[in-house]
Design goal:
- With 417 residues, the chain is of the alpha+beta class.
- Strands 1, 4, 5, 6, 8, 9, 10, 11 and 12 form a nine-stranded mixed sheet that branches. The chain has a six-stranded antiparallel sheet with strand order 15-17-16-19-14-18, sandwiched between helices.
- The radius of gyration is 22 Å and the shape is globular.
């Protein structure tokens, strides 16, 4: 099903990548953008974004194409002499303070339409980001940021195939802006590569991050039907069931709508039970969730926080048959209680903080009326939904750690790409 192949990476000719790595383009704030631009003349942000947000609408990214050509000519970037896979080991600490390492690999992925059920999406996309990324791809003819894909490997077959490469020499390494230590290795052993290719060929993959980039690559393939290199894109593959993979919740903050009174909550959620829990300030929220919400696991449950000095833990009295808790929350709470349908959510009526402490601070600082804290999905949830051809509500999953840009690039101009 999933067709991958080795490629000749275009990458930084330096051992320490710390000064040039950049977070995914869609999570960079305007303030971070300027700081990254000013930090190093060869920072990877110069291959991703304009210096200011105001320049994006008018740019055709010709300057990025020139920068890419200049850096390649001047030796800032080097192209490896033969195709390979590229292993990535990421050491990090999760919110629980536990040290973890996630291993995965980069490869060229043959593009497949969603209808083929090979590459499975799990969320909807928006037109604006795809138009911007298409301009960049047209100008540079290069994959400058990566699509993050998940596969199912409960027995660790791929890990075993790549073990020797990870035990070998390091190509480059560095700490990215999120504090994750990234270590890159090359995989050129033909037997190892064939084991990985054969394993991936038997199963689909799920997009964890990069829906807009993937759909942009599909569009570019349509525009250039006679270009074999455009039939592939740069992708990173991680085992969703490996111990080093972390799936976290993304919470919700209601921006358009008032906090219900206790009586209104009861009237609007007749099929739910609630418990009031005292809390002292935003800093007390993470521990409260760990004690009261996390043990409920996959049950339809959430905690509502209106910064009043206490929160309410809600649990649904009867489980919806086979329905994920996050869908129940959107249907019965975000839409049922606050009157916000999918269009309103996409138009900005709800914010999606990636940590409970951030959501708690938003409400207490007036950037929302109610925070809704949720439990994470499981990898099984994600694979079950995507295999059924369904989509999750917007911002349902947060896979950690994120993948920085700057580790490897793929040029479509290279015959070995």
């Amino acid at each position: 099903m999933t067709e991958i192949r080795p490629f000749r990476a275009l990458r930084y000719d330096r051992a320490d990548l710390s000064p040039v790595l950049v977070p995914p383009y869609d999570v960079i704030t305007p303030e971070e953008r300027e700081r990254f631009w000013s930090s190093d003349p060869h920072h990877a942000i110069r291959l991703e974004l304009t210096r200011s947000v105001s320049q994006e609408a008018e740019t055709d990214y010709a300057d990025v194409a020139e920068t890419l050509a200049d850096w390649t000519r001047d030796g800032v970037l080097t192209r490896d002499p033969e195709p390979g896979l590229y292993g990535l080991a990421q050491r990090y600490r999760g919110p629980d303070g536990v040290a973890r390492e996630r291993r995965g690999f980069f490869a060229a992925l043959r593009l497949a339409d969603y209808a083929e059920r090979v590459v499975l999406p799990h969320e909807r996309t928006m037109a604006g980001p795809k138009a911007d990324r298409l301009k960049l791809l047209r100008a540079t003819r290069a994959n400058l940021s990566v699509i993050f894909l998940l596969y199912e490997d409960r027995d660790g077959v791929v890990d075993q195939a790549l073990a020797e490469a990870f035990a070998g020499p390091t190509l480059s390494e560095g700490s990215d802006p999120a504090g994750v230590h990234d270590r890159l290795v090359r995989v050129t052993d033909a037997t190892a590569i064939e084991r990985v290719r054969a394993f991936m060929a038997e199963r689909p993959v799920v997009i964890a991050d990069g829906h807009h980039r993937y759909e942009t690559a599909l569009r570019y393939r349509e525009e250039t039907p006679n270009d074999p290199a455009a039939g592939f894109t740069l992708a990173y593959f991680a085992n969703a069931f490996a111990q080093g993979s972390l799936l976290l919740p993304i919470h919700r903050v209601i921006l358009k709508g008032q906090a219900p009174t206790p009586a209104a909550w009861r009237d609007l959620l007749p099929g739910w039970s609630s418990t009031e829990l005292p809390v002292e300030g935003a800093e007390g929220i993470p521990a409260l969730l760990e004690e009261h919400l996390e043990p409920l696991g996959a049950r339809a449950a959430f905690v509502a926080d209106d910064a009043s000095g206490s929160v309410r833990l809600f649990t649904r009295d009867a489980e919806a048959d086979g329905e994920l808790a996050i869908r129940t929350l959107h249907r019965e709470v975000i839409q049922g209680v606050f009157g916000l349908d999918d269009d309103a959510v996409r138009d900005g009526a709800v914010a999606f903080p990636k940590a409970s402490l951030l959501a708690a601070r938003d409400v207490r600082e007036g950037r929302g009326s109610v925070a809704l804290y949720v439990n994470p999905l499981t990898p099984d949830d994600v694979f079950r939904v995507t295999r059924a051809g369904e989509l999750l509500p917007q911002k349902s999953t947060l896979f950690q750690p994120k993948l920085p840009s700057g580790l490897v690039f793929r040029s479509l101009e290279d015959p070995g790409a």
